[in-house]
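Q: Can someone sanity-check these two? First one:
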Amino acid sequence: MAPNAPDRGYSLSKVTGLFVFAATCWVLSVCGLSMEGGLLIKAVFVLILISGAWGYRSGLLSVSELRALLSRYGRSVEGIFIGLSLFYLVIRFLNPEIFWGEKPMDLTFLGFFVRNHQLPPQDPWAAGSPMSYYYVGIYYVAALLKLTGISVSIGYNLAIATLAGFIGASLYGLFLLITKRVWFATSAAALLVLASDPELLRLIIFEGKPITFDTYWASTRVFTPPCFFEYTSWSLLFADLHAHVIAIPFTVTVTALAALVFVGSNDRFTGHGIALRCLLGVMLGSLFGINTWDFISFGGVVGLLVVLASVKPFWEPPRNQDGSVNSSEVVLVTLFTRAVALVWDLIFVGASAGVIAWLYQRGVNLKQAAGWGWVVDPEFNSFHMYVRVLGYWMLGTTAGLLFLGAKKIKLLKIESALGLIGALCVMAVVLAAPLMSVARGIGNQPWAMIAYCTLIVGAAYFVLWSLGESVERKFAAVAVAVPAYLVIITELFYLIDRMNTLFKGWMAVWMLSGISTMLILFFVGSAISRSQSKRLKQAFKVFVALFVALHLVGTACNVFATVILKRVPIRHYTLNGTAFLPDLPQTKEDAQIVAWLNENVKGMATVLEAHGDPYREFTRISMYTGLPTILGWEHHTRQRGLSAEFLTERKKAIRAIYSSDDLALTKELLVKYNIDFIVIGNIERANNRPFQSEKFDEHPELFTKVVTFGGTSLYVTYFSRYNKNYKSERPS
């Protein structure tokens, strides 16, 4: 699908291969086929291998071409993939605990999907209720664990590390496509995965903060509360296996595929071109189920690149008798050619994306977003805040555009004047959003930020797009303009809520800003290399060295803060993220319950345990087994669209089962929520008073004690299929 890519798409095949494998498993599950036993998953994997061998043997890539490709790109592609994966794997080995933050919730999801064999799924933190969350990314990770048989507690840490390799490989493919330089693609991809923001060094140098986890945490809490932003390397170090983190390699790959369409638009009507556009559409549509925010952001990126892709005219316009070209004929040829090409691209890219997004919508069961509007004055962020987050990218982009623009201004030709007029038109489009905000009576706009972003968009058009520059520079112009425009949109407008709009929208801002900055510095370096000025070359080398050093020093501090963090009494050097459980007095007995359930319950079962505040000890059994529970962390279940009435009803049911002496009510609730196991430990006794301990031991018609570890016991209900005396009284 990528014959025009220097490496024939080798670097992009990693994420694409994962997508084809896992998405196929997902589609088969949605169609009603069960993944139980792993046979179907293995069959899909083997089928992909056979398809690859068939494609190779049928002449898509000859033996000599394959050898040449591996000889030229193999070490760099595999080096960036394995190198970044091992780097983050070592960090996970030194600090492997799946503990604190939202890692327990992510582990719940991962364990649930390894257990789960049918779709659409229930919500593991609201057993029996349909899941209303973009879970497909964690499903992909679970599909790999099902294929390999790796345990969830180890697979979690492996997934975090491998995501870094996937991101790096796809960035390599994108940079190689635009620059054709292996050395640059390798170094730029690695730097972008490892890049840090300026805030960390500002806190350390100017505020005297020590290099600790608290400083590392504070470096992402820059914006006006409740907004914040967690960039790529920070997220990989923090190790939350969230949807927005899993989505990163897919968004980079989608961008690279769109870049292939953009720079190789002349082969759009070939078989390769059609296949590429279908793949782009399907992967773009899949973002709807992986991380819906990215479907919106990168849908705009793909749409812009497809619409702006160059089109070769179908015929030359006729000339007048004196040899001149009739302007109206030129316009007719151009408009007709572009219209046909745009319709053609929309048929394959748009239709493929629409079909897969519709399919994911059915399988994901997302509820309609509630809430949208304009941001008001107290919620605006200052320009200084943006510099503290995007400062390095802003420095590189601004300096690069100024350097390249200075050379163009000297030309002072008619083409330059037309380029300036075009830049002003583009800037006017960017200013439309803030002017609409002002028209609504919203005052005190963040004008400094708006002015900067507007100027950057105009400069990118003038310097990189106008004057008939190369298609690679035009791609860089789009890569500069989109994040600048997104900054304005996410600052002035919110969807669902202010926090998620900025947090999730800035995942695209950060990645596209990094990509565009790297490309601009490459173009600057290429221009300077042709210069005769040794002083200019030396100054550029110093600038690049400082630019790289700032990023890497910040990341080194982040790595140090992460590795020295000790949240458990005994440090384990392992990839098993749950190895710490037996070491904590409050979780020692729970660890034994978890081990028993993981050993004896292979499929699905509903577990009843104590409910309480998020980020604390509650919902711990579900977290480490993947088994659904009646109610998990309330804040997160509310975010997934569950109503207050629904949550209140479940909280009352949990309390009634533990504290009510009404056996009829207890039996009714056990059947209603299909409860298989009941956990009784110190947490349950302390949070459900008066606790009816006698009820569970004196009524074998309802409960059977399975196992006891210290003060924690596990009961199986009479209605559970895991009870040896199973007698179904469940509702149909």
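And here is the second, same format, sequence then tokens:
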Amino acid sequence: MSIFKRVDNHIFWISAIIAAIFVIWTVLMPEQAGGVFSSILAFLTGNFGWSYLLAMTLFLLFCIVVAISKFGKIKLGKDDEKPEYSTITWFFMLFSASMGIGLVFWSIAEPMYHFGGPPFAEPGSAAAAEEAMRYTFYHWGLHPWAVYALVGMALAYFSFRKGMPFLVSSTFAPILGEKGTRGTLGKAIDILSVFATIFGVATSLGLGAMQITTGLSMNYETPDTIPMTLGIIAVITVLFTVSVVTGIDRGIKYLSYVNMTLALIFIAFFIFFGPLKFILNTFVTTVGYYLQNLLWMSLYADPYGVMAEHTGYDWLGSWTVFYWAWWIAWGPFCGAFIARISRGRTVREVVIGSLFAPVLFSFIWLSSFGGSALWIELFGVGGIAEAVSASVSSAFFVTLGHFPMVGLMSFLATLMIATFFITSADSATYVSAALTSGGDPDPDSSLRVVWGVTKGAVAAVLLLAGGLSALQTASIASAFPFMIVMLFMMYTLWKAFSSEFGGMVFTPQASSKADICHTTSLGSCGTKEKDKG
């Protein structure tokens, strides 16, 4: 008899055993694990980097085509359903869960890193600054959000419009059949989704913990050590586990308001106390560079080694391929979370809301944070690039040191990092619990606790096994097979959308009491959640 009220034993136990083996192996043999991670990273980036570039471009084109086509008016739910959350609440939760913690970490660190070692320009030059912002916009622009929009559309369509369980495997019903989604291949797809979610989120947990550790060390003279970082992971794991147990409408919803409010405060702070004219010029100019070079950057695989020769290392694999793999690894949980909060919206609304609106906000964010740091480096006292080269996690706090109210703003920065940390992690934990409970959109609290602890443990052992490089490897390795899943997902979603306009009709039937519960309620079987409006 299961210890959980609602659980898919195959998906849960196989996923849990794989995660446990990984954790035990890494704790007992960290050096061996670190070597294996390095080998996997070199193999995938060296041989399959092109596939990440091509796949991400296809995902973006697919989302744009679907949104502007007749498919854009398809309701992700029944025809008479209304959105569960207001637009502002929906956007806050969507952005906080999907992007926040990584954007806080890299918004200054990445532009400064590229400024000191650009792929083409002369390091430290004005051209390097332009190139640094262009590639930062590229890495945090349309491509990652296309991953989330694609998975979100697919899950919301098959779960809320077609009445299938809230599982990634449900999106394959047009080619596997409803029975096939519950078979071996369907289970494998769901296990892979859980696996990708665990390691994708572990990367963010590790980055966030490293940044908090550095911030506390710089401002409160606490030790900047691995044990300190592990302690922060433990504390944050407890906090996000408590948050996810309280549910979307309490923990996740209200934390999203808190961290988005803090994010807006910081944008206003940099604009008010920073070089406003430079920030505005950076925003306008970099958007132009980004749009002008988008297709070229999307498909540039550095076949002649120009980037590698200029920088002295595999720049494309270390940056663009890593990012694309990271976003794909986040695809199952971010897409599932977007689907969960998007019931009742149209395909076009979801694409605009989860693709274009967040990108605009991200570009404003990057121009304010990264632009201020570059201005200090080019026209001020400098020192940020040097600090970043020594410790990439110090970038945000070093930059704050050049502004007034450094003590207060450093405290608020630590709080913002922690809240973004928590909202990303509790959203991922919620989705992992849903995927291992047979697609129940309201999974057991005990199941949420198990996956919360698991994610914290994986982040901790990855740091022990090799720090940032191990985190990067975990993302790239877990993302590769899910990338293939997403390529097929485009086909199944197009086929299903076509059935809405006279194509072959796809009408799955709920085949069990559990499936009927999933198709009729967002809450537990036999209950109906109130409209949040």
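A (reply): Looked at the second one. The chain is about 75% helix and 0% strand. The radius of gyration is 22 Å.
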